[in-house]
Design brief:
The chain is of the alpha+beta class and 192 residues long. It has 2 domains: 1-22 and 151-192, no CATH class; 32-148, Glutaredoxin. It contains 7 helices and 4 strands, in the order E-E-H-H-H-H-H-H-E-E-H. The chain has helices spanning 34-59, 73-84, 88-101, 109-118, 123-132, 136-148, 171-191, and strands at residues 2-4, 16-18, 156-159, 163-166. Strands 2-1-3-4 form a 4-stranded mixed beta sheet, covered by helices on one side. The two termini are 29 Å apart.
Length: 192
């Protein structure tokens, strides 16, 4: 995700959030060696309870992610499709809840179609666009941009195209960071 719009410098201007797709392990990525896969699983298992406690304490969320991760490519495509129909926020919220709280497989087209319906969108139109691969290149382009910027994990926030913040952050923290970036940009603008 990228946060832009800070160049307006006005505290009354809203902060504009631009969501970007980022696949941790794209389907075309070479397979990881078995020892790396096992180390990754162990690291995730070791941090899972801490992550659930953090989500509960900071965000008031109960997390129950799926037993096995699924490819997020179709989910990213579906989110772009929903964004084009003015329902991006609704769809992303439903998508996050489906994966992180309900433990649903967001790589399953039927799950993605159900989320579209829940947001008042035409699930059959989503199915057709996913089958046609209409948003594949946009997802790939977003992921390439993220890799070029050095991102290797999610969530990640890029403010004003140059200030990176990684990890899940409470909304108040992100607001404070946005204000600090606005101030820095205003000072840079005033001194030039």
């Amino acid at each position: 995700m990228a946060v832009s719009g800070l160049d307006a410098l006005s505290r009354t201007e809203p902060i504009v959030v631009t969501w970007k797709a980022f696949e941790l392990r794209p389907p075309e990525a070479p397979p990881l060696p078995p020892q790396v896969v096992e180390q990754y699983r162990q690291r995730i298992a070791a941090s899972s309870e801490r992550m659930r406690q953090h989500a509960r304490a900071v965000f008031g969320l109960e997390m129950r992610q799926p037993e096995r991760p699924s490819s997020s490519r179709l989910a990213h495509q579906a989110a772009k499709w929903a964004e084009d129909r003015g329902a991006g926020d609704c769809y992303r919220r439903a998508l996050f809840a489906a994966y992180w709280q309900e433990g649903r497989d967001i790589g399953d087209p039927a799950v993605l179609q159900a989320l579209a319906e829940a947001c008042g969108l035409d699930a059959s139109a989503l199915a057709a666009d996913l089958a046609a691969g209409r948003y594949v290149e946009e997802v790939r382009a977003d992921s390439a941009e993220a890799h070029e910027a050095g991102l290797s994990g999610v969530p990640a926030f890029v403010f004003a195209g140059k200030y990176l913040v990684t990890g899940a952050q409470p909304p108040d923290t992100l607001r404070r960071i946005a204000e600090l970036v606005r101030e820095k940009l205003a000072n840079e603008s005033a001194s030039s």
